[in-house]
Amino acid sequence: MTILGEAVRAELQRRGVDIDQAEIERILLNADIASTASRGVPARLRVHRLHVTGTKRYSENPGTEIDATEMKTAPINLDWTPRIGVNGVGSEANLRGKSSVLHLTMWALTGRSHLQADVVSWVDHVSAEFRVDDVPFYVEFDVTDGAPSGTVAQKIASGRAVLGTFSGAAEFESVMGSVMLDRLRLDAISVYSKGVETEHTWPSYAAALTVHADRLDPIIGNENTLKTRILQMFIGTSWAAIDAQVATALNSLTFERDEIKAKRQAAASVTATVLGQAEDRVAAAKKFLKEFDPDEPDVDTVFALASAASERARKAHHLSVQLMAADTAASGARAQLRAEELRQRASAETAVARRLFNGMTPTVCPRCSTKVDPERYAAEPTTHECSLCLHDLDLEELAVPAAGQSISAGGAEVAGELDESVDPVEALREAVAEAERGVADLRTKHRQAEAARREAEEAAVKGREKLDSARGRLKAELELARAQSALDTLRDATRDQPPKLADLEIKVLTAASDLTKKWVRDEQGPLLESVSGAIAVLARRFGSTNITSVKLKGNGNMDVLKGGAPTTYSNLTNGEKLRIKLAAVIALIELGDREGVGRHPGLLFVDSPAAEEIPEADLRAMLQAMTAIAEETDLQIVVATTHGPMLSDVLPKGNLLVAAGTDFVW
Length: 666
Known about the structure:
It contains 15 helices and 18 strands. By secondary structure, it is α+β, with helices and mostly antiparallel strands. It folds into two domains: 5-259 and 504-658, 3-Layer(aba) Sandwich (Rossmann fold); 300-458.
């Protein structure tokens, strides 16, 4: 059972929520929240030595176009040993390397470089010595094509113990982070924002050790998003780190819950449309299903009807073939009858014509009018030659086509009786009649068979239609089942589901957050009040004499009473902000030195303070004030400015790294 877990259970019970203690502890553990808190005790960090070697490339005519051949080179041999108290790094001109000294120091201290690329290219080797509570740490690295590689070691009785090696910027930063956070007793700061959790480690703390004249908005540190957490860590409240852990876990849970809710809301209109379409599909499927006969068809009956229809079709076809054959035979008989009638008519006409013409006595040729002499005509019965053409005569009498018929020629009657045998015409007529009676009989049977076939086929078609209807009904039932399933799935999806993260966890972490924030406020209140009073005093010593009082808040903001009128830090001039920001950092260091609490390591870099509306006289007063404070407080301050001669006037020679005229600092 932990202190926080027990307090959370009591708080939840006060709110009417009863959760098992083991469950609360499990939730806190799963959220990576530490079980115990510890009051911050400052560990002092000092820069003891910085040694840099390399080759500098520069021009003596800055601001003009430079040919590569005009570039000069000079060896670099920076060997700087700052002391406790206030140290000055200065020059009388800009771009002489004063800020680079700070950047080189921070590179060795954090593993992260803020140097310009050309300056990095000059460096061959860096050797730095830092001390944490008087324990020496050594950082040694070579620079090849801008990439550092080296070691971090700690002094021990027998020499040096290597704490880590690195090759490249990422490894360098990682090694320095693990070494420094542990020894300075600092906790990583986790911040959850917009679905991303970011862990701020040693470089973020180290950045807060530098006051830049062009980055004054955060009172503590250089990032507004971290000013509250950095202040909590530096002021030394016990629950500050755990409060940050709880806030990160709670923000993560809340963000995920809100994301789920937002996605549901964003999809609501689309879901409604799809749901409507699914409902329409179900309604259409039900309507379509009602069109089918619900009775199930008898498959055997349908097959029997189909078989009967096939049999009747076969019989009708057989009668059709017989009818065609009989019709063909009748047609043949009729043709024979017509042929026989024509033949007999032609024979009768020929006989009559012969009798007629044979009874004539020609006198002249009907073509050329040549006269026929009587002798030739008289010779015909004996010569049997025609008196006209001299061809043989057929004097045999021809039979009359029909019995009893008589033919007259030239007024004389020619009568003759035909053969009394069976008349072929009559026989053929009888055959034709018989054939036509057979055709008529077959035609009647064929009509009856066709009617039976059509009736059977209609019955078979109706049977097949019932089967088709049954198949269609089955398809309609399947479609209705699919549509209903899709609709049910959509309805399940649109129903409010519990969030991915249980409300129980939200309740536990909310209670934990409320508790840790209260504990931080309660512990931080007196400390902030003490620091606020010190800030006001220091601000007046730094030249802001019209600052009556300040109130540093737990969120890193500040109320200011200036000239009797209330205002805020953000409404001050940049010069006033610089003075108060320096005062705030020094006040935190003083608090740690006086009360033995806090986590500020007591190291401060001030870069180009005169750049922000601070005259040389005011800067001199600030340096004198900081020097006096340094004699009273355990701190190390490095000030980089172009007021090199003023630094030399105020600070001891051993605390100076100053270049005269246009010389370079290194």
